[in-house]
Amino acid sequence: MTVVRVMRTPEKVAAITRARVESVLAETGYTPDLLARGLAMNRSGVVAAIVPLLTNSLVAEVVQGLTTRLEAAGIHLLIASSGFSAEREEGLVRAFLSRRVDGVFLIGTTHTSETRRMLVSAGIPVVEGGNLTRAPIDMVVGFSNREAARTVTAHLAKRCGRGPIAFVGAHARDNDRARDRRSGFRATMRELGRPVAPEFVVETDLDMVSGAAAADDLVTRNPDLRGILCSADAIAAGVLFALQRRGIPVPGRVAVASFDDIEIAGLVSPGLTTIRVPRLRIGECAGDMILQRLAGAEVAEVRVDVGYELVVRESA
Amino acid sequence: MTVVRVMRTPEKVAAITRARVESVLAETGYTPDLLARGLAMNRSGVVAAIVPLLTNSLVAEVVQGLTTRLEAAGIHLLIASSGFSAEREEGLVRAFLSRRVDGVFLIGTTHTSETRRMLVSAGIPVVEGGNLTRAPIDMVVGFSNREAARTVTAHLAKRCGRGPIAFVGAHARDNDRARDRRSGFRATMRELGRPVAPEFVVETDLDMVSGAAAADDLVTRNPDLRGILCSADAIAAGVLFALQRRGIPVPGRVAVASFDDIEIAGLVSPGLTTIRVPRLRIGECAGDMILQRLAGAEVAEVRVDVGYELVVRESA
DNA sequence: CCGTTGGATGTTACCGCTCACATCAGGGGA
DNA sequence: TCCCCTGATGTGAGCGGTAACATCCAACGG
Known about the structure:
Order of helices and strands of chain A: HHHEHEHEHEEHEHEHEHEEHEE
Number of domains of chain A: 3
CATH architecture of the largest domain in chain A: 3-Layer(aba) Sandwich
Strand content of chain A: 15-25%
Low-confidence stretches of chain A: none
Structural class of chain A: alpha/beta
Strand order of the largest sheet of chain A: 2-1-3-4-5-11
CATH topology of the largest domain in chain A: Rossmann fold
Distance between the termini of chain A: 69 Å
Shape of chain A: elongated
Mean pLDDT of chain A: 93
Oligomer: homodimer
Number of helices of chain A: 11
Number of strands of chain A: 12
Largest interface: A-B, 52 and 52 residues
Radius of gyration of chain A: 24 Å
Largest sheet of chain A: 6 strands, parallel
């Protein structure tokens, strides 16, 4: 039928015919089948996002930024969470590739080699978000977590005199951001001539309850602790609540700092000193990069550094 | 080719042939095209979820529960946020229907009539989550926000003696949960012989910063305020921080209560008295209902009440 | 020895759309 | 008057699967 032309290139069809077709479409309640279109055009109009955990407010914002941009281009988001497992991620990538997604967005830069292979040979735009890496699969948008860690560590160290500082981080396996933050912390402390003993570096789940538990444990074992650096605000908030409950003044006796600057960081009291990361922009930027590539354009910046910012509040 | 049989009914093909086919598949790196399959089978293997806002921790958990169940059945999730607008939701439903999704999950029960029409005539399983309604489009899983509001209001009123109580809620337009919570609050107060003046019922955005601003405003205008009921913990947390900053003792001078029992509710100090809702279960339940329907089974319970629970902590 | 049976494999139309090309009608220039 | 050109419309072959049916062959029983 001429139907297809009415929908895709209305200017090439006579006004009268167009009107007739349109009225028929309206009364039959016709809905184009995007699956069939996808099959015929070899382009599904769908992009996949694989995140560690949906319930992380930081991730949610990145995804929000991503959908906003993609939706404006009529592209929808297929989403799944890997639960911080590179193996699960691999399975998801395989499944999504089977769905012929037009692009893939991944949080983090830690993937199995099979994941990388599949993604490369699929020949579709891929954006890794969150952590800058020297060797992206395709494109990457984020900032250097290692550098950010150095910045906040230096600040915290200054506030703590010569007192011992601990690090409470999310599990580092398959989580490059937590890993880089930790290693940045360690390196900076070493350079300051204050190397950190292993018992002052702990791993925990990425939520407030776990952060609180970790803090309880740390301060009972080490009453002279002067500072705690957390790999995420969610953890730091838990730490803060735990200290508060024990009547330990912050930053008077223990200073606290962390990463992300999620909403709660500015509201707790004392306010959290933290590293602000432009998470919405990460998502938007990733969306734009994918769209550009889909439009056939060469993407000039294949490695976008969105930077970070140290936000000094009361906690350190 | 016999290829298809190898994949779908391997027992019907001779072992030797199967081996040969499999080796060829492996070395060519064949990936089945789910788009084509979807077209042929008239079933895409994709379910759509439309939520007001992804960055809401409650919503994120519901979605997490949903994906968990669906993924186990090889079904993926197409997600989009409506930004609390029924019109945007309508557009999204139209788009997703075009993608021939096998099912739809919606947060809330407020939809345009066109949305309802499309969904009904699509003849696919639809689950509305969060608020129980008498007249679901198809299926519904949630609890009565109105009843929950009565429960927490009664509790809060008792704690506040005869002092005035205010309600700080999310914008109620296109948000049935906020609306029902507010109306439950009003009704209960009226029945208690303490009808609430309009200036004690305010609308705000659903985040901590807005909650804090609302609280500041309320207490400066009404120094004798005794209690604040919030329509969500995110708002209540902001309220709590604002009061704390002003040195107003909670619950000594102002008691605070709310809904949702998100993580932060148990960690702030004083802990938030709130209504706990089984959000993960809402998502899982919705997923199960959709899967059952997809499997051709009749769903026994088309209206699932997951209940709620008053969690009394220190704030009220 | 042959017809029958049933398991293994091949064939074909179709799902709804896009794309390249064929066709058709009418107007203008020679 | 005829032909060519052009803009509007029609046609047909895929896209990569599925499902129903056709075919083939070997073993088996009468």
